[in-house]
Amino acid sequence: MAVSCSSSSVSGSAKALACLHTSHLAPQRTASARLRLQCIKMCSAPAAPGGSKKTVWVWTENRQVMTAAVERGWNTFLFGSKEVGKDWSSTARIHPLFIDGLEIFDEGNQKVAAISEISSPSELQLIQPDNVEVQNNVIHFRGDWQVIPAENIVAAFQGCAGAVLAVSTNSTEAQVFLEALEQGLDGVVLKVEDMDDIIKLKDYFDRRNEAKSQLQLTKATVSKVEVVGMGDRVCVDLCSIMRPGEGLLVCVGSYARGMFLVHSECLETNYIASRPFRVNAGPVHAYVTVPGNKTSYLSELQSGREVIVVDQNGLWRTSIVGRVKIESRPLILVEAKENSGNGTYSIFLQNAETVALIGPDRGSGGRTAIPVTSLKVGDEVLVRKQGGARHTGIEIQEFIVEK
Predict the structure, then answer these.
(1) Are the CB atoms for 266 and 238 separated by under 8 Å?
(2) C-alpha–C-alpha distance, residues 40 and 281, integer Å
(3) Would you state the pLDDT for residue 92?
(4) 23: helix, strand or coil
(5) Cα–Cα separations (whole angstroms), residue 285 to 224, 234, 266, 296
(6) Phi, psi angles (nearest 5°) of residue 200
(7) Checking DSSP bridges between strand 394-395 and strand 344-350, what pairing results, if any?
(8) Most buried of the four, 10, 252, 370, 391, by CB within 10 Å?
(9) Residue 41 has pLDDT above 70, yes or no
């Protein structure tokens, strides 16, 4: 029976993640289907930034992998026999599923999903929405091609009720499937025998789900603006676009205890084109916020690292560094005192019209991006307060003086 699709797209098929759709079931089976729906939902990971949850099933013969997965909230496991599943269920509270050929069943011998092995475009075409017979599909990609087929699956199944998972043999491969066409597949079947892959995949979810939180930003009043001379400043070019009007920022500062919000070069000017991927972030000694509540020196950034991009409301996301460009340029020193406390913070920035700090939202027509060349004593800017002591970028509790 073909999968029924809604007229409007449902991001990530969130409502159907790893759950049996009951429209094709006989009335006497509806109650058991609902029970299975509730059980399988338990394996979903926390919501991703796009709002949909991602499902993780674990396929392993290693008890250490099972333990690591259960400790991280994933309790749906695939087994080749009921005997093994029963044995493992006696040592941990898990939800076992059983593989029989190319089909997956639950403990009540009800069909949960079908496995489709894909190694060619013609095989991929067979699992298009109009052709499949079950709601949940586990795709096992064979061969070297994975990214493009996964993108085709995401596009074909958008707005459909069923869930599509891909078999992944390591955490990196799982990430590819979870990010295909930005939206990603509904989840993955992590087929691994190394617990490190469980840990890495959970860390990946943690980093992405951190971005749903807000950073607390504080107003500070500029108390000093001074041109100081030459220094080596760092331009950070990201692999993401920071769009005009969004006010996306990177937190940087001379002191670990207080970070300023430096605007990207996304604004149009008369003399230079917009570079919405770039933040002229400050000199080499300055701190930049990176995922995991850590900091890094700007001089330590390189291609492939992740940084935190923030807007004036404190909403943030991660972005990958494409390149770092260090050049000698004239610098300006900015100091600011927080309005609701005694903290004083400072930052060096290139003395140029394209470099700006972010101030509080003034409402309609209010200026929020303030070029450092126009900055004056009394202007308000936004800072992020945090613990001052850091060791290799990690916040620690110790006595420290920064000046």
Answers:
(1) no
(2) 46
(3) 81
(4) coil
(5) 20, 10, 24, 9
(6) -65, -40
(7) unpaired
(8) 252
(9) no
Mean pLDDT value across residues 299-317: 89
Q: Determine the pLDDT at residue 348.
A: 95
Q: Is the dihedral of CA 60, 62, 63, 67 positive or negative?
A: negative
Q: How far apart are CA 246 and CA 296, in angstroms?
A: 25
- 163-167, 198-202, 352-356: which has the minimum mean pLDDT? 163-167
Full-model pTM:
0.60
Sketch out the chain's domains with CATH numbers.
Answer: 55-212 (3.20.20.70), 218-393 (no CATH)
Residues contacting 363, CB < 8 A, separation 6+? none
Q: Please, how many CA atoms are within 13 Å of residue 138, restricted to the half-sphere of its CB?
A: 26
- How many CB atoms within 10 Å of residue 46? 13
- Using DSSP's 3-state secondary structure scheme, residue 338 falls into strand
pLDDT in tens, 197-209: 999 999 888 877 7
User: How many whole angstroms separate alpha carbon 61 and alpha carbon 83?
Assistant: 13
Angle formed at CA 85 by CA 81 and CA 90, multiple of 5 degrees? 150
